[in-house]
Specification:
The chain is built from six helices and 14 strands. With 277 residues, it is α+β, with helices and mostly antiparallel strands. The protein folds into two domains: 2-150, Nuclear Transport Factor 2, Chain: A, CATH 3.10.450.50; 165-275, Nuclear Transport Factor 2, Chain: A, CATH 3.10.450.50. Strands 1, 2, 3, 4, 5, 6, 7, 8 and 9 form a nine-stranded mixed β-sheet that branches. A five-stranded mixed β-sheet has the order 10-14-13-12-11, with helices on one face. Helix 1 (2-34) runs antiparallel to helix 2 (36-43).
Length: 277
């Protein structure tokens, strides 16, 4: 009976993740149809965070802008290729390739990137974007019509044993100061993870972490959210590295022992002119 109930529960989580992926596809289709401003206003939560480059309430910022007139000069489309969701089915994330298409009279070649979004289920049952941070990539990561793959399920024996998720980034910083960033990443990353950096292809295995040319030395937590099942959370804030500063988004997931592990690490540096201010 326990196995049967577990299977039913797993199917419920799978359905919730597919609903989330469908919401992401609808978000992309709407943005292709009506443009960036109106598409993002429709699918971002009222308190949803984007980066421009500082964190801001995206919906609020866009609603203050006048609706664009005239033909669009840029269209971007994206599709989810990977994602995960909490056991409660109320917080999840997706990520996938982005295609930027120049629609001007003299179009430049297409550009590529990877989006990353955390979604939260609203009281009315709809999914809205809680936070979003993308990075440019030097080439296509995957076709825009790529298939969606879910994270491997975790059978957890107990709830988190780390405490308040808001302390995870400060613990990360402390670990870096005591050892080193490479060692801290190696110890905190889950066995299924993603590291996104501007101008790089996604890193999804520990052997490829050596490709990183800049390592953070400190994370300054700003805010975040946690699933009601307390097994998935995101944090965001400002990072400091030896040669840059910028903003980060982390996603944390509890493993089978209930320990928080880092599953997503996205960073975007501030322009150099702002670094020196």
């Amino acid at each position: 009976m326990a196995v049967f109930v577990g299977e039913i529960y797993s199917q419920k989580v799978d359905r919730a993740l597919e609903e989330l992926a469908a919401a992401e596809r609808a978000f992309a289709a709407e943005t292709v149809k009506v443009g960036f401003r109106d598409g993002f206003i429709k699918y971002f939560a009222d308190d949803g965070i984007g980066f421009g480059p500082e964190p801001q309430r995206t919906k609020e910022v866009l609603q203050k802008r006048p609706a664009p007139t005239g033909p669009r000069t840029l269209m971007f489309n994206w599709q989810p290729m990977f994602g995960d969701i909490s056991q409660a089915g109320d917080l999840g994330y997706t990520t996938g390739p982005v295609l930027y298409t120049d629609l001007s009279a003299n179009p430049r070649p297409p550009r590529h990137g990877m989006y990353f979004s955390v979604w939260q289920k609203q009281p009315d049952g709809t999914w809205k974007v809680a936070i979003d941070m993308g990075v440019d990539t030097p080439q296509e990561v995957a076709p825009i019509d790529t298939a969606f793959v879910s994270a491997r399920p975790v059978v957890r024996g107990k709830s988190s044993n780390v405490g308040d998720f808001r302390s995870l980034d400060s613990m990360f910083s402390e670990s870096i100061s005591k050892t080193s960033a490479p060692k801290s990443y190696g110890s905190l990353l889950y066995d299924e993870f993603r590291v996104h950096r501007k101008g790089m292809m996604p890193i999804t295995d520990k052997a490829s972490l050596g490709k990183l040319t800049s390592w953070p030395t400190r994370f300054e937590f700003i805010d975040g959210k946690i699933a009601s099942s307390k097994d998935l959370a995101f944090t965001y804030g400002k990072y400091t590295a030896t040669d840059e500063t910028g903003y980060y988004v982390h996603v944390w997931r509890t493993d089978k022992s209930g320990t928080w592990r880092l599953v997503v690490d996205v960073q975007n540096p501030l322009p150099k002119s702002k670094d020196s201010q």
